[in-house]
Amino acid sequence: MALENQNLNSQDVDQEVQQLLNSLPKAKGWVDAGLSLYHHFWCPSIILGNVISFERHFQAQEHDIILASMPKTGTTWLKSLIFSIVNRSRYSFSNTPLLTSSPHQLVPFLELTLFANKDHLPADLSTIPSPRLFATHIPYPALPETIKHSSDCRIVYICRNPFDSVVSAWHFFSQSMIEEGKANSSFSIDEIFDLSFKGLSAYGPFWDHVLAYWNESLANPEKVLFLKYEDLKEDAVSHLKRLAEFIGHPFSQEEESQGTIEEIIRVCSLKNLKELEVNKNGKFMPSFENKLFFRKGEVGEGINCLSNEKKKLLENVMLEKLKGSGLSFKCI
Fold first, then answer.
1. DSSP 79-136
2. What pTM, to 2 d.p., does this model score?
3. Which strands form 224-228's sheet, in the order they lie side by side?
4. d(C-alpha 44, C-alpha 35), whole Å
5. What does residue 159 show for φ and ψ, rounded to 5 degrees?
6. By CB distance 3.0 to 4.6 Å, which of 25, 42, 60, 294 could disulfide with 153?
7. Which residues pair with 134 in a beta bridge?
């Protein structure tokens, strides 16, 4: 269901959003605020108005770069990498804004921050210099048409082994509840895996989210670049070269010989970002402190949280969901 009247006042919008919210299928999942099935994905109910405002009002520009992902799949890291690639001629490594600003400030989320005002009014994006850098967790089919069809903007999608992303998300949201003074979730790690692999997660089902961007990257490789977190970790240099080429900011031979790529990798490393004062303090949103976005970033952590029997069961679920797509994840 879409909200088509562009001239409603904020009170009318609030009422219409509430009516829509009341009509949508609901699920608790393990997100504190609950989930609503909107455009065939599980939208956190608390941000439905933001999502509607984003889809209704956002107008993509030719040189926009949209970073898309599921939560806890390497988004923060990729934000810092893309910002550094695009702005490397504007800032030196000694005065990059990454030293004083969170990656989430430099590459803001469309539905979580830019369109997250209580009046559901369009965000003023006119002062953002080109190329504009944005992020979103919205699935590809639910993106505004202006992003998908009416512009030449680029989409960079990052995904992560679902076992690792589930564990990362569990730690993230559990810690955020502790920071808020709320009781920790009563879900066991096995229950969290079961819910997530069944699709009951924010912006999920995971499989639909990943496969939609994967298929679009195959159909329109000049429009969508599909990256795996594990591949970036294993060979950051070659994938940064590929990324820079895709977004229209390729590295010169001189830059490569001077070690520019390696320096970007160093500056954007979890180890370096985690130690910056800005990422130790402050908040990205009222519920999420900056430090929550910098934990381990390891590959293979998720699989070690499960019994062999549970691991095999979930591996079979993954193989069935991805069957015939050509997409696969390593299970370590």
1. HHHHHHHHTTTTS-TTS-GGGTS-HHHHS-BIIIIIT--TT-PPP--TTSPSSPEEEE
2. 0.88
3. 133-136, 65-69, 154-159, 224-228
4. 5
5. -130, 170
6. 60
7. 66
Which one-letter amino acid corresponds to residue 182?
A: K
Per-residue pLDDT of the chain (332 residues; tens, 9 = 90+): 334 344 445 666 678 888 888 899 999 877 667 899 999 999 999 889 999 999 999 999 999 999 999 998 999 999 999 999 999 999 988 899 999 888 988 999 999 889 987 666 677 898 898 999 999 999 999 999 999 987 789 999 999 998 888 887 776 666 655 455 554 455 677 888 888 888 998 999 999 999 999 999 999 999 999 999 999 999 999 999 999 999 999 999 999 999 999 999 999 988 888 777 776 776 665 566 655 655 666 776 767 777 888 888 888 999 999 999 999 987 65
What end-to-end distance do the CA atoms of the chain give, in Å? 41
Q: Is 163 exposed, middle or buried (0-12, 13-18, 19+ CB in 10 A)?
A: buried
CA angle 278, 173, 306 (to 5 degrees): 120
Structure tokens at 25: 């299928």
Token match 């970002």: residue?
A: 273
Residue 139, preceding bond cis, omega within 30 degrees?
no
Contact 132, 64 (CB under 8 A): yes
> CA-to-CA distance for 162 and 279, rounded, in angstroms?
25
Residue 24 tokens read as 């949508």
d(C-alpha 53, C-alpha 48), whole Å = 9
Length of the chain measured in residues: 332
The span from the CA of 135 to the CA of 97, in Å, is 18
> Among 238, 103, 234, which residue's Cα sits nearest to residue 161?
234
Q: In what order do the strands lie in the sheet with 41-44?
A: 26-27, 35-38, 41-44
